[in-house]
């Protein structure tokens, strides 16, 4: 199961959004990978190192691929994180 | 020894005098033993144990940072925990141990590889490299039973000097003991700089390698405004810095040179901001952002929890006024227990008072109960309540009715309460245009310049491409402020301002000239604005305001303000 999502948080996949993303990916019973939408390379979503190492900025499209019992649920949750702007203070 | 100056980036407008204490987290390891002398199974167990100790430390520091600095800054520790448990890192360390390295050397080698990889990528990756270094040094310390340099109990008057300070290091610094800090690396937006501003600590970052030549115990002045580290300062320099530090804090109300009182208050975004606000001489709280009580949690705070927070704020300022803004939450701030709609344009959507009168009505009622009870529990006349994002009189009247109905409920229940001072934020063109109609129905206006500039200029705050337009020096914004003050004239309605503009001491004279009664800002600039108030003459200030209002462009405004100084 896969999905293309545009990254909204200003920081891209860094700092708090990345942290939340990885935490969420680890909460579900599914194997999730992600990469830039325009390449075939995929990295494990459960790894902070891999996720921040992609260096994805706001406005870029990423591809999420999930397999397992919770595949759809985890994709929903991750899409939610990627498409929610960071809290303003 | 002769006085000399090193330059870096000043991150707070504060000065401190003290003696250098070098902070070098000890990560030096002796050579590893021969691989055949290493018991891999034992080392793997030590690594697991060290990870669990490190995680406990991180959770404790997270909690401390959330309390002292804020939830947003504390979130950096979540990233650390995830790096700590990252499968790639754990696999790397495990491989290195199985290859014959003791655990601490395996950690050092594996992390350093990733640190270098991130550093070579440039940009934001530098911050991740710092995160990884922080975790590496923590794990190595735990594994080698290293003593932790306790930054929280340094001798009074220490100036901490370091290559870099990690968030966990900075969170330990106690502004009461530490006179400031200076780092080799870092920029204005680094974690250390953000912490320094929250804690009101004199600080300079990015001084460069030259800093390494300064020895422990050397006397220095940290000028966090100019970004200068003055080494071996002579008596005059020290006296000037100390005098500046003294000038910085004035307790008691500030008056202009010709005797007009201007209230200078602090904006408070978490309970941890209360102490610095008092320490920096704020007269009260001009903006208590009640959102922090609601964000980053799974359920809303109940009435008693809110009551305690409002009473804490009142008790921190025995004589001052505390202006609480009711919940200002909208589509742009995720709150798990609220059903916030997805909106095309969250800043123009269901936010602020619109939610409080609509979907969040029961949350609003609880907040009103807590506010009225807090007002009644202390000297109630000091609590003020203001509503965010008001655009119509209907909203004002409806909110007022809710306050009255809650007051009568509380009376029936026999609970002590008082109806507080009641005001609105002026942060939309609608509110500014209708200010003369609002004025008879409120006790005060508070002009929120960040949002007002955004809405008047139709230029989003966070968008760098239009930041020139969203500037509060734009004539249209200044006219909106002027119209608001004029509308309040003749009514029993004072006018305050909260937002960045109020905290800019270069604009204090203009704001006094425009007729503001109160200015509220982040604690760190309170003394500067108070000093600027005392140097202002209202006649001159009014002339300046008239000149500025006659300007056609932002550049003209800026020129008038600069030539005035």
TrEMBL record, chain A:
Protein name: HPr family phosphocarrier protein
GO cellular component: cytoplasm
Example GO BP: phosphoenolpyruvate-dependent sugar phosphotransferase system
Lineage, highest ranks first: Archaea, Methanobacteriati, Methanobacteriota, Stenosarchaea group, Halobacteria
UniProt entry keywords in alphabetical sequence: Cytoplasm, Phosphotransferase system
Cleaved signal peptide residues: none
Pfam families, sorted: PTS-HPr (PF00381)
Subcellular compartments: Cytoplasm
Species, as recorded: Haloferax litoreum
Domain of life: Archaea
Automatic annotation (TrEMBL), chain B:
EC identifiers of the protein: 2.7.3.9
GO CC field: cytoplasm
EC top class, as a word: transferase
Magnesium is among the record's keywords: yes
Catalysed reactions listed for this entry: L-histidyl-[protein] + phosphoenolpyruvate = N(pros)-phospho-L-histidyl-[protein] + pyruvate
GO molecular function: kinase activity; metal ion binding; phosphoenolpyruvate-protein phosphotransferase activity
Keyword field contains Ligase: no
UniProt cross-references to InterPro entries, sorted A to Z: PEP-util_enz_mobile_dom (IPR008279), PEP-utilizing_PTS_enzyme (IPR050499), PEP_util_C (IPR000121), PEP_util_CS (IPR023151), Phosphohistidine_dom_sf (IPR036637), PTS_EI (IPR024692), PTS_EI-like (IPR006318), PTS_EIN (IPR008731)
Principal location: cytoplasm
Alphabetized SUPFAM superfamilies for the sequence: Enzyme I of the PEP:sugar phosphotransferase system HPr-binding (sub)domain, Phosphoenolpyruvate/pyruvate domain, Phosphohistidine domain
Residue ranges of domain PEP-utilising enzyme C-terminal in the record: 249-536
Record's keyword terms, sorted: Cytoplasm, Kinase, Magnesium, Metal-binding, Phosphotransferase system, Pyruvate, Sugar transport, Transferase, Transport
Cellular compartments annotated: Cytoplasm
Positions contributing to phosphoenolpyruvate binding: 289, 325, 450-451, 461
PEP-utilising enzyme mobile domain: residues covered: 154-227
Residues holding Mg(2+): 427, 451
Cofactor: Mg(2+)
Superkingdom as given in the UniProt entry: Archaea
Positions annotated as active site in the UniProt record: 191, 498
Occurrences of domain Phosphotransferase system enzyme I N-terminal (ranges): 8-128
GO biological-process terms attached to the record: phosphoenolpyruvate-dependent sugar phosphotransferase system
Family, as annotated: Belongs to the PEP-utilizing enzyme family.
Described function: General (non sugar-specific) component of the phosphoenolpyruvate-dependent sugar phosphotransferase system (sugar PTS). This major carbohydrate active-transport system catalyzes the phosphorylation of incoming sugar substrates concomitantly with their translocation across the cell membrane. Enzyme I transfers the phosphoryl group from phosphoenolpyruvate (PEP) to the phosphoryl carrier protein (HPr).
Protein name (record): Phosphoenolpyruvate-protein phosphotransferase
Species of origin: Haloferax litoreum
Designated gene of the protein: ptsP
């Amino acid at each position: 199961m896969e999905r293309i999502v545009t990254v909204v948080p200003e920081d891209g996949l860094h700092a708090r959004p990345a942290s939340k993303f990885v935490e969420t990916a680890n909460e579900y019973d599914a194997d999730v990978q992600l990469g830039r939408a325009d390449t075939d390379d995929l990295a494990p979503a459960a790894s902070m190192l891999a996720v921040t190492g992609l260096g994805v900025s706001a406005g870029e499209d990423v591809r999420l691929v999930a397999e397992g019992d919770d595949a759809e649920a985890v994709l929903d949750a991750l899409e939610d994180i990627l498409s929610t702007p960071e809290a303003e203070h | 020894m002769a006085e000399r100056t090193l330059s870096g980036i000043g991150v707070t407008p504060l000065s401190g005098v003290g003696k250098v204490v070098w902070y070098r987290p000890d990560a030096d390891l002796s050579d590893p033993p021969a691989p055949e002398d290493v018991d891999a199974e034992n080392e793997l167990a030590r690594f697991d144990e060290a990870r669990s100790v490190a995680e406990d430390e991180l959770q404790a520091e997270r909690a401390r940072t959330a309390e002292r600095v804020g939830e947003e800054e504390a979130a950096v520790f979540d990233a650390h925990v995830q790096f700590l448990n990252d499968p790639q890192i754990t696999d790397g360390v495990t491989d290195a141990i199985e290859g014959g390295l003791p655990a601490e050397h395996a950690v050092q080698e594996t992390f350093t590889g990733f640190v270098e990889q991130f550093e070579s990528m440039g940009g934001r990756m530098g911050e991740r490299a710092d995160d990884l270094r922080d975790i590496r040094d923590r794990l190595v310390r735990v594994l080698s039973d290293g003593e932790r340099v306790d930054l929280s109990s340094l001798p009074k008057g220490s100036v901490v000097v370091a290559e870099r300070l990690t968030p966990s290091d900075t969170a330990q610094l106690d502004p009461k003991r530490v006179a400031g800090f200076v780092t080799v690396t870092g920029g204005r937006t680094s974690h250390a700089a953000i912490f320094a501003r929250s804690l009101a600590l004199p600080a300079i970052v990015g001084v460069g390698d030259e800093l390494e030549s300064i020895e422990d115990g050397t006397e220095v002045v940290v000028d966090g405004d100019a970004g200068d580290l003055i080494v071996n300062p002579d008596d005059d320099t020290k006296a000037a810095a100390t005098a500046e530090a003294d000038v910085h804090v004035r307790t008691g109300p500030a008056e202009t040179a010709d005797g007009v009182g201007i209230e200078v208050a602090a904006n408070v975004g978490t309970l941890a901001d209360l102490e610095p606000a008092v320490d920096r001489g704020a007269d009260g709280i001009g903006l208590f952002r009640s959102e922090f009580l609601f964000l980053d949690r799974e359920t809303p705070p109940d009435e008693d929890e809110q009551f305690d927070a409002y009473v804490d704020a009142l008790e921190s300022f025995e004589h001052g006024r505390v202006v609480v803004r009711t919940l200002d939450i909208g589509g742009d701030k995720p709150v798990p227990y609220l059903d916030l709609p997805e909106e095309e344009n969250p800043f123009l959507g269901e936010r602020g008072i619109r939610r409080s009168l609509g979907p969040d009505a029961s949350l609003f009622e609880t907040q009103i109960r807590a506010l009225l009870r807090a007002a009644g529990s202390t000297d109630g006349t000091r609590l003020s309540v203001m509503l965010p994002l008001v655009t119509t009189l209907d909203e004002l009247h409806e909110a007022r009715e809710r306050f009255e109905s809650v007051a009568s409920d509380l009376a029936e229940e026999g609970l002590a309460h008082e109806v507080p001072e009641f005001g609105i934020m002026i942060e939309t063109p609608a509110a500014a245009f209708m200010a003369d109609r609002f004025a008879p129905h409120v006790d005060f206006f508070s002009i929120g310049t960040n949002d007002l500039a955004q809405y008047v200029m139709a230029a989003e705050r966070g968008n760098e491409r239009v930041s020139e337009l969203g500037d509060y020096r734009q004539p249209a914004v200044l006219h909106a402020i002027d119209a608001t003050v004029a509308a309040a004239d003749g009514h029993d309605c004072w006018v305050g301002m909260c937002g960045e503009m109020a905290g800019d001491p270069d604009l204090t004279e203009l704001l006094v000239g425009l007729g503001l009664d109160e200015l509220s800002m982040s604690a760190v600039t309170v003394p500067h604005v108070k000093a600027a108030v005392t140097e202002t003459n209202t006649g001159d200030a009014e002339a300046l305001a008239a000149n500025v209002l006659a300007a056609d462009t932002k550049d003209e405004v800026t020129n008038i303000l600069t030539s005035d100084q």
